[in-house]
Amino acid sequence: MSNKQEEMRNKLILKANSADIREQLEDDPTNPDLWYKMGTALSDEIDHEAGIDAFSQGLVYNPFNASLYFGRGRKYIGLGRYWRCISDTTMAIRIQPEMWNHWYYRAVAYNLNGNYAEATADFMQCYNMTDPEEHYPMVDWLFLCALDMNDKEKAREVLELIDDKVIPPAMDYAYRRRVMLYKKIVAPDEFIDVEHIKKNCLPLPNRVELEINTLTFGLFAYYTYTGDTEKANEVLLKIVKFEPSAAFGYIKGVAIARKRGLI
User: Fold this and answer.
1) Which of 23, 54, 173, 189 has the smallest count of CB within 10 Å of its CB?
2) Around Cβ 237, how many Cβ atoms within 10 Å?
3) 186: nearest Cα among 164, 157, 208
4) Separation in Å, CA 47 to CA 36, 60, 76, 78, 246
5) Report field, pTM of the whole predicted structure over 0.85
6) Which conformational region is residue 261 in: left (phi greater than 0), alpha (psi within -120 to 50 degrees), or beta?
7) Distance (Å, rounded) from C-alpha 102 to C-alpha 242?
8) What is the mean pLDDT of the chain?
């Protein structure tokens, strides 16, 4: 993994304290890295709106900073403002096109917005820019895009893009687990194993709950792929009972459940 990619991964799991950052901003009020940390901290401590305001303020001082556009765009996803995310991540791509994360989050927003062809193109761009250990999220999303377009043959072909023996970073635990489910290497009744999650996921607060959320949507995708609509709907009803969150599985699951008239 390149130094830039490692830097981007660190930004994705960054935890910061707004009080500490505010003190540093008093001495360096236009620093874009500090404004990125402030946006991340306020999103965690207050809400996404507060984080977006901080990213926006940082952009006033640094109007061509890709990380600030990226940071703000990510938070728009959790608020369901997909076109704003697409706009911000497009700016990040124009400024810093070599960072696959920028393409990735635009692709996620495209998918959640129903623009499946555009999402597929961006996820393939990510796939082509990255090493094998980074491929699980892209392959998983490409699989979902194919299902969204009712193309199960394409979904099957997508699974051939990855060697399931490759071990990804801990951050991508759930994506590898889901790919193994889709490939029928892991059985549905063994798929969500809390002890296995605890042993293999990132050691962060509430991470186990996030992984369970992500895995549960993967179970819905599996039953959709295998043609078991009844079980797929049962999984959707589980998802809608989860604590509301910005997790992609929750957002997508609730949207599908609503479209199917289950809620």
Assistant:
1) 189
2) 12
3) 164
4) 15, 21, 11, 10, 11
5) yes
6) left
7) 28
8) 95
